[in-house]
Design a protein that fits this description.
Length: 396
């Protein structure tokens, strides 16, 4: 029987797999390898950062996959030039390279990471390949949330935002519709987005398919005088991550320290964190910036606080904290990426709620209960065998 082949398309190089989307795409590589597929990864160079081609080639050899680099190039005669995040992906070099591989290798599956690849997909002669899209966010609402953070609240700002961004939103909506038309299956990383797609677009194509996290070391619940609290910001050039850090520093920490002095020590990690919060450091707030060995730091933590109420998709920092068994506090939006799991995390809708949540977590027994429940339930959700079974049920 000939080896089955899958082509995976990524808008960025996935090595080193540090960012949430890189981890997710690497997870797909590992799952399809487990199913016995021959994998070719097509990825574009980054716009703002240099691409380490040698590192990506070395990792491709390590994982036993082929890798093809595509040029990110905006062409003036391209009808998609001004469409949201699409123009640089749809160029002559990319189309010719991909089409040549499709015609010579005849893949069984084309897996496109992100909705933005719908336009590229529409221009390819795909043969008999099955078309899968991985939805990382419901892009229309995600873009709206990010724009709203920058513009602020109020009717005047809302009208300014509409005037500025309506063309972008229209192009995103057309992209979503095109993806639904072209795809055989849509794998949603977020439970909330999965339900939204089914309800709004009246289709059975979407499937809830969470991130494959692999094995994690459990963080033990410790009885300490001062509890360590972590906020993993990822990259603070992302305004969604920045909004969570700002809310923590401006709203939560002052109230918690006032009510429970010296009971909690807060840690902020993520690229660019020191540039933003260095002047805010105290004995109760430590700013780490990017941490190379995040596992060692996480093992010292007692609580994860993720006060993010913007953006769609699934907050990977939330999922990782729950899988490690770290008691986690956040807004309802923070946890919208997974089905509701009773007694596994704590909701807070305003700063006073966060103070009450921290007060509750002073109890070792409550932290132990949350740790046990969250780790067990997230293990079930992201279990490798469950995800492989899901892919097999789809005929892969």
């Amino acid at each position: 029987m000939p080896t089955r082949k899958v082509f995976i398309f990524s808008p960025i190089p996935i090595f080193p797999a540090i960012a949430a989307n890189q981890k997710d795409i690497l997870g797909h590589v590992l799952l399809f390898k487990e199913l016995g597929y021959d994998i070719t990864l097509f990825c574009y160079n980054r716009e703002r950062y240099p691409t380490d081609f040698d590192l990506n080639r070395q990792n491709a050899l390590k994982y036993g996959i082929k890798i093809e680099f595509l040029k990110r190039k905006r062409e003036q005669d391209n009808i998609y030039t001004y469409w949201y995040q699409v123009g640089p992906l749809v160029n002559v070099h990319a189309i010719r390279t991909i089409q040549s591989h499709i015609e010579s290798e005849k893949p069984d599956i084309l897996l496109f990471e992100y909705t933005r690849f719908a336009y590229l997909c529409s221009l390819l002669k795909k043969g008999d390949a099955k078309i899968i899209f991985r939805v990382h966010n419901f892009e229309l609402f995600h873009n709206y949330d990010k724009a709203k953070i920058n513009m602020g609240d109020g009717l005047y700002n809302w009208l300014k935002m509409i005037k500025r961004d309506w063309r972008v939103w229209l192009s995103i909506l057309f992209g979503e519709r095109l993806m639904l038309k072209l795809s055989d299956e849509i794998l949603c990383i977020s439970w909330g987005d999965f339900e939204f797609y089914k309800r709004i677009f009246l289709t059975n194509k979407p499937i809830y398919f969470p991130l494959y996290l692999g094995e994690f070391t459990k963080v033990d619940v410790k009885d300490k005088e001062t509890l360590d609290v972590i906020y993993m910001g990822g990259n603070f050039s992302n305004n969604v991550n920045r909004s969570g850090g700002d809310y923590l520093v401006k709203k939560i920490i002052p109230l918690v320290n006032k009510k429970h002095p010296k009971k909690f020590r807060f840690h902020i990690t993520g690229r660019g964190a020191r540039e933003v919060y260095d002047m805010k450091q105290t004995e109760n707030l430590i700013v780490h910036d990017f941490v190379e060995d995040i596992e060692s730091l996480y093992n010292k933590m007692d609580i994860a606080c993720i006060p993010i109420k913007a953006g769609r998709g699934c907050k990977i920092k939330m999922l990782e904290a729950l899988k490690k068994g770290v008691p986690t506090i956040g807004f309802r939006r923070t946890f919208s990426g997974i089905p509701y799991i009773a007694n596994s995390f704590i909701f807070a809708e305003n700063a006073k709620d966060y103070v009450k949540a921290f007060e509750k977590l002073l109890s070792v027994s409550i932290r132990q209960e949350l740790s046990r429940n969250s780790q067990r339930e997230v293990d079930i959700l992201t279990n490798k065998e469950r995800l492989l079974s899901c892919l097999r049920d789809l005929g892969f």
